[in-house]
Amino acid sequence: MPPRAKRNPSNPPKAAAAPPKAKAAAAPGAKARGASTGPAKAASPAAKAAAAAEAEEKRKAEEAAAAAKEAEEAAARAEAEKEQKEAAEAELKRLAALANGEVTIKYSMYAEKFKIENHTLTAAAVDELYCLSDIMPGCFIHLGEKEFGYGEEHAYIKEDPPGSFRGLMSGETYWCYVQQDPEQEKRDQEAMKHRWAGQVVGGGVGDRGSEGETCSCGWGAPCTNPMICKDWDNRFANAIKAGGNPILFTNT
């Protein structure tokens, strides 16, 4: 058999044609042919009316609950105010019974009783019985609510004017102190003014001063705010000690 002739390299055999591409599959989530794309059907009038009625009922229920809560809080406040007023009236009645009577004044070995009127006693009455100015001419007489220890600062009962002791309570015991040094007496008077700050005004009810910032009982006017008062339960007694007029406390 004769040898096979060589092919011309410039004319290589054609490759077989590629098979036809398959038709692209439909994309996931693609809408089916003929699917509706229009807006959803609107809610029926009956459904709208039911929703509106439900909302209205909810609103009425919330308003009723709020009104009931407000009424309950108002009743609680009224009851608290009533109890506070009754307690204040009872305390004022108790203090009124202590305005007149006898107090015990201690001095050295002595412990005599003295009559007070309207919570008041004078230094002259004490001196008349104890004869202090006879022994110490020109002396100054003061009262304290306790027996002071050695070196302890003396805090005296309010005097208005000097020599007239205010705020005494029947049945109580007080201690008498005598000052002979005029210079020390000046310092004692200044200390008393500082302790019993303010002045009695308005017919004796006391100067409420800046009660929004500090207790006014020491000014002769019982506090009206328990958050400010230093001693709320004894506010009336403390105001009386400061020279306030208890007759006028009923409005506080």
UniProtKB/TrEMBL annotation:
Task: Give positions of region: Disordered.
Answer: 1-83
Q: Where is the composition biased (Basic and acidic residues)?
A: 55-83
The biased composition feature labelled Low complexity covers: 13-53
Give the superkingdom in one word. Answer: Eukaryota
Name of this protein: Uncharacterized protein
* Organism expressing this protein natively: Alexandrium monilatum
